[in-house]
């Protein structure tokens, strides 16, 4: 039975042709001699391996037949109308690139470059670069670097060397799928040639021959798999064809992504990377790889919110419906859940034995916590107290952070213990009298919760952690997304959930997207991560233009990661598009009109409403925008906890949009900060205020990076 090797097709085909192509490929993979397929060579073709096949009366597939180790393989180049297919088939050639050992499909008679192309410079700049010099020259790249070291085909190298700026190189990159496109994106950055070689795992081929065995070896190189995929069964074939471009993450991984998805680690590992670099994609592939390798393993895949957990669950199902999704964290398979739901599940599963854990964390005897502490409980405690403490301590932000970051992780149960506990990373110094007064408020908070039998989220995670500690690990592998937002007791729980060992904890995070929690240092919670991390830097989602806008939001903010190191920026994008539009408006009505007008013009241009999102600061603004759009004849709906539907423009808070993406995004900045918010921020101590400001910038960064193609920012003065 022939093996099918799919490529990212250079020509996109529509739905009805896809179905026919699917049926053709299914038959081909069963038996290439099936009558009606007409698998035939082309007389005088540039490559004797080329074959055409009959998809239907009108369409033909173009492919290469390779025979290696007694097996037949078909590399599917694409599907074209009959006459075009014959022309393509006569010209194309599949070969091993002699420099980097990667497979390369080239046209035997390349079209002459457009006359307007300026001649390519061949030497790096000798003097200081001027803006008129092409980007490659400014970066000191030479033709020898591109052609002789990296294996870029000469015609593409000449175009790249002549490209005036980054956008022009990205345009060129977009015209080349796979490793060549990835190389061009990297060449537009400051990265050294050595770094690029390492990142794409480029190696000179052992053999430079072009026989079938060499080609098959070349097709298996890590960088080749960004463009070519060996198809494992009919079901996978169907998914690859049906999902087209949007589903390419399921099949065509960047060599770095593949590396992190399959590599085995002795202990915890942290993968950082900016928005849209594919951290979630790596986690999903890793979960599948672990589940396939060990079907009996208990794998927990977790993230911060319920909505994000839903998205992970859906993503895993799309990646591979055969992966067993477990319904309990102790069962074999992949259990996908939010961290807070995980804490609740641990407590539920513990039954009455949870009383010991509650005793260890809170110091009181309770068997069954009956519910979640209502938000606003700290406010009630503050209002009922006559504390002598200053306002920068007596506020909900300070007290809840002190409780979640110091009291709970240290299992502080009384005033004496609180007097002695160390408080690293907390701003306000507390002398003994102040500590006693803070403890009085904490004791009041606990008393309220004891009376109504509730636990807050941080308490529930602490109790779950205490219960799991010493259990020897009830899961085998824990994979975490959005790690930057987790709190100390979440980390304690996850640490206790899995015993220290191979592939125990794999954490994806981006400090720039911390919009809920405060800085956390994993080493404090027995997660020994120092020196065990890497980062992804190629953004697959956001165009370079939108990414630059989003990155500017972070300028000047001193972000630190989970190892307490300064967070690095320097992401690059694989895509190019229009510059973001920033429109200043003077009134609320003008803001709403501007949003409605732009959405109408996007829809007139062919965009479907559900691929457009308006992101706002809070629920109040969300309702206002939904009403205003509907009144102006633009069907819109608010998205809250439910999954977004079809046929209407989606309006949601920036927090809700975390982890999502849309073709087009309007960012409604909501106007100047409200007076109440100004007062709230002023009342915080310096560190809390600083963190709140970082979170506010991060929120805009998160929101701006949700746009795949176009971004409109409406700013009200
Ligand atoms: N190898 C790939 N090929 C094609 N598309 C990809 C690839 N990797 C990621 N993508 C796409 O890039 C987008 C972002 O991926 P993903 O959500 O995994 O990134 P992320 O780093 O988790 O982002 P965020 O931090 O913003 O949530 C998705 O649309 C995903 O399908």
UniProtKB/TrEMBL annotation:
Keywords from the UniProt entry: ATP-binding, Helicase, Hydrolase, Isomerase, Nucleotide-binding
Reaction equation(s) it catalyzes: ATP + H2O = ADP + phosphate + H(+); Couples ATP hydrolysis with the unwinding of duplex DNA by translocating in the 3'-5' direction
E.C. designation(s): 5.6.2.4
Binding site for ATP: 273-280
Disordered, as annotated region: 108-133
SUPFAM superfamilies in UniProt: P-loop containing nucleoside triphosphate hydrolases
Domain UvrD-like helicase ATP-binding: 252-550
Keyword ATP-binding annotated: yes
Keyword Nucleotide-binding annotated: yes
Bias (Pro residues) ranges: 111-122
Protein name listed in UniProt: DNA 3'-5' helicase
Organism: Micromonospora noduli
